[in-house]
Each structure stands twice: as structure tokens, then as C-alpha cells.
Amino acid sequence: MYEISQKEYESRRERVRSELYRRGLDVLILFSPLRIFYLTGYHLLSTERPLAMIFPKDEDPIFYVPKLEEDHVKYRVPWVRRVFTYFEYPGTEHPLKRFVEVLKEEKIAEKRIGVDSDGYLGKYGYKGPALSELLGKEVKRVPEIVDDMRLVKSQEEISLLRESAKWCTLALRYLQEYSVPGTSEVEASMLASIDASSAMIRALGQATFAWIPPAKAYFRGQVGKLSYYPHMMYNNVLIKEGDVVIGEASAYVGGYSAELERTMIVGSPSEEQKKYFKAMIRAREEALKEYKPGNPCYAPNRAAFKVFREEGLLEMALHRTGHGIGLEGHEPPWIEEGDSTEMKPGMVFSCEPGIYVPGLGGFRHSDTVVITEDGAEMLTSYPTELEELIIR
Question: What is the rounded CA–CA span in Å between residue 242 and residue 237?
């Protein structure tokens, strides 16, 4: 119930096969654990150890993994055709050289090969040769075969994001309650995350939680004057009267998480705080009107920035209005002036225009929005007006 069905995974793999035929390719090799998960539901713990899924267009996939993953593959993907392993990285022979031997053994090396990258992605100090170098031939880089499929979400994906949004709401509610003056931001974040996660675990039962805690709410350093920095990190500062704080919440359900953020004021808001909060709300409202099928992705961004320009606040806008959401917190398409991708039913985005005032703080709400046949649906739900976002 709280994960993608095997039927949908099979459908995704069929779409890949069709695309391989269309492009004249015989096999797709994936090194990205995220793309492998998208096609199989199998979470591979990505480290410095190379791993890959070999996907011939006419047969079930083959996995190439470190020895410690062998039984995990068989447990998670019992239908896999074969599993090849190596003991460790770096080993006496580089694992990618062994991988080429596997391709030769399976009579794949001489075929037309598509890849998502030319060899394993560098991580945790991994060093390795390019796959094309070891094969002695060119391979075609086609990460978009999987990535383009992810742009429009299925009903199952949207259901998981909708479920996630419920737990985002609970987590942020706890954060607002726990963030009383004198409390450290880390303490408030931990208490909110633990309580929301405990409720989520009890409610969802045997659902798989790939991330712990499954529900999180936090300020990430965006407290008081430090909320001026959109990507501030934790400072464990004490929350105090008069602070502008930006609370964020996420909750992973079946690998997917919605995004929910709210700007709150600790104590009675000043006239200056009210002014900037009101401008942010106006930009948000105008941006939300542009989330609809047929619109280019830059349309909500253009609408939000028009408001900022009219308010004389353009220099305080430090980032775009939104981004795609799904398996990753940030993924294409982008709600940005440079992205003209047409919005289609099933695409899921954040809407988060923000302004940042030096010496005062940041003002940003974020919601998760899915494009529908005739407009858009807000998946996240939390008060937006200042009166309900005051921490007392």
C-alpha cells in the first residue's frame, strides 16, 4: 500500500525496452542506484563499491554488485536473471575490469550499449577507468531514457506524495508547538521529528522506511537573522522573541517525499516583518495561478518575480520559485526563467518564492503542487496566514 506496485515497476521496464528498440540499442547499463530503484524498487546502498544493472532489451536484468549485496539483491529482486559479484573495492583487480569480463561472458560487450554514465559514478574516494576505455569502443550516454520517464508521475507516485504530505503537516505542527522561546533549534527539530515519525510508524505498520527518521521537521539554521540565508546550516541557536524562523518538513513514503515549509514569527510580529511576509504571500498567490497544464515551467517564476519587481524587492529574491519533486527533493523540471518545459498533468513541483532581508530574516512558504487535467492540486496543507503562524 505504501510503495510502488510490482505491476508498475514492470510497466516502467517495458517502457525502457520500447525506448531501447526505438533508439536501436541492445542493452541499457545503469550505474545510478536511484535509476535502478526507479525500475526495480531495490534500494542499493551506494558507496565507493561499483554496482550496476545490465538491462538487455529482450531479457530480464542482470545485477553486478559487491559480494556483500548479493543476498540483498536476491531478497529484494527475486526475479533477477543472474547476479555477478566481486569481493571488494579496490581489490587486486579493479571491479570495473571484472564487470567488462561479465559483459563479454554474457555476449553483451559487442552489442550496442547505452549507459547512464560512462562507468561508475565517483563517490567516497572511488577511482576507476571509463567503461568505454575498458571496452575499447564507444558507449552511448542515455540517462534521459529513465530520467524523462520520471518527469510525469503516475497515480501511484502521486498517492505516495499525497500520503507524505499528511505527515509533513504533522511534523511541521509539532515543530511549531515545540519552538517556544528559549528552546534550541536542534532540540525543537529533534522532538518534532521523533514525535511525527513515531506516529507515522504506528500508522503505516509494515511499510519500508528507507530513511530514518521517516518524518522530519527542522529549521536548518534558518532562525532569526540567520533565516536571511536560504541555505543556512544548523547552528543550534536559541529561539527568541521577535525571531523570523523558516520551518521545513519532509516525510519519506515508498521513497517519495513532499516538501512543506512555512515562515513563522516568534511573538508579536513587527510592522516590518508584516510588510515582507505580505509581499511573499502575494508573490506565492500569483505564482500558484500559473501552475496549470500547457504553461511553460517559467510561468510561475515570472509571475512571482513580477510581484517582487512591483514591490521594489527584486534584489531580495535570491532563488527561483520552485523545482520538481519526487524521488529527489530537487529534480527536473525547474520553475525557473530558463526552463520552458511544458507543464503536463502528473508533474509535481514545489512553489516557494522567497525574499530575504539583510539583518531581519527570510520569508518563504513552500508547498507541493501536482498539475492536473484542468489546473493544479495542492498536496500539502498548512496555514498560510501570519496570524496562524505566530509562535507564542
Answer: 14
Q: How far apart are CA 338 and CA 349, in angstroms?
A: 16
What pLDDT digit, counting tens, does each position of 160-210 carry?
999 999 999 999 999 999 999 999 999 999 999 999 999 999 999 877 777
Structural domains in the chain plus CATH codes:
6-147 (3.40.350.10), 155-391 (3.90.230.10)
The amino acid at 285: E
Cβ–Cβ under 8 Å, residues 9 and 157? no
Per-residue H/E/C for the chain: CCCCCHHHHHHHHHHHHHHHHHHCCCEEEECCHHHHHHHHCCCCCCCCCCCEEEEECCCCCEEEEEHHHHHHHHHHCCCCCEEEEECCCCCCCCHHHHHHHHHHHCCCCCCCEEECCCCCCCCCCCCCCCHHHHHCCCCEECCHHHHCCCCCCCHHHHHHHHHHHHHHHHHHHHHHHHCCCCCEHHHHHHHHHHHHHHHHHHHHCCCCCCCCCCEEEECCCCEHHHHHCCCCCCCCCECCCCCEEEEEEEEEECCEECCEEEEEEECCCCHHHHHHHHHHHHHHHHHHCCCCCCCECHHHHHHHHHHHHHCCCHHHCCCCCEEECCCCCCEEEEECCCCCCECCCCCEEEECCEEEECCCEEEECEEEEEECCCCEEECCCCCCCHHHHEEC
**Model confidence over 33-67: pLDDT tens digits?**
999 999 999 988 889 999 999 999 999 999 999 99
Please state the length of the chain.
392
Place of cell 571491479: 95
Q: How would you classify residue 136: left for phi > 0, otherwise alpha for psi between -120 and 50, otherwise beta? A: left
The alpha-carbon radius of gyration of the chain (Å, integer) is 23
Check: pTM over 0.90? Answer yes or no: yes
Q: Smallest Cα–Cα separation from 290: which of 281, 277, 299?
A: 299
